[in-house]
Amino acid sequence: MDAQDPKHQILSRYKSKIVHEPVVPLGTRGKLGGPDPGLGDAEFEAIGYMRRRVRYYGVDYEWSETLLWNPYQGYRWLLEYNGHFTLLQDCVERPEEGR
Hints:
Blueprint: H1 6-17, E1 29-31, E2 43-56, E3 59-70, E4 74-81, E5 84-88
Antiparallel strand pairs: 1-2, 2-3, 3-4, 4-5
């Protein structure tokens, strides 16, 4: 690989702008434990990362979201805020009123 090639320089320019490193590095694979019996021994891979922020009554709150993927289980979001983790799954059904 030629570091002078503009196609390869984009990676180093991107890396130099990263302020927050993901807690779970992209490409990491692992099994999730916890109360969800549907996960079993499914191994997920970290395929995406973003840092989020919201201002609520003048106070800024920031957290990290890591996108996890498994070909049989689908996608999950692993949220991290101040060292605490939450595992989320997107709704697949449209919510109905009164449920």
